[in-house]
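User: Quick sanity check before I run a bigger batch. Here is a single chain. Can you write out its predicted 3D structure?
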Amino acid sequence: MKTIINRIVSDDILHAKWLNTLSFMENAGARKISACENRFMTNLMQLKHAAEEHRHAYYLKKQLSKLDITGFQYYSPNTLLAASHTLHFLHALDIQVCRYLKNHFQLDSNALKYAAYLFVTYAIEVRADELYPIYQEALTKHLSKVMVKSIILEEEGHLEEMVASLKEFDERWEMHATAVLALEKELFEHWFSAIALEIEKAYGHIGEVAN
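Assistant: Done. Predicted structure follows.
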């Protein structure tokens, strides 16, 4: 992962696509949180989380202005890395988690949406807790003007909130969270492999690909 992200940061076009891809996924996460909200029972944490994910999407989009490149106003597929995987990543994870929860809990529609929100968000925050520090390390190494330190701090806070909420949801939450993390890991590896392959096809060999 470090090898690929360093390769991305070293090239303005790749870096712009990477930033736009992360922005898209943060925005997709914010929209998914809002879609899971109950009309009357939405709590402060959900509102805060949706607002912060939207802000992350905005912040990452704004970071594009620090690169000497144009044409990234929108989330057009040609402005994203591994566009097909990127566009469907979160939806695929949500479907798989909902299927898992249906098999292990007796939940009505609203309860299922909330449970899926908790577990999907937990998995995404665990991933963010790994990915963003690696990205920031590469930014620092390449003396980039782009920064994601503020996102790292907020994602750490989100993860703590998810853990607290999952403890309230079920006393065996860790067992179920482990299963959800396995689902996310498979999707993530397919996504990141697609990014690596796309970069290699378009820009040449990127070195050893290792997590």
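The CA atoms of residues 91 and 107 lie 20 Å apart.

User: Great, the batch can go ahead then.
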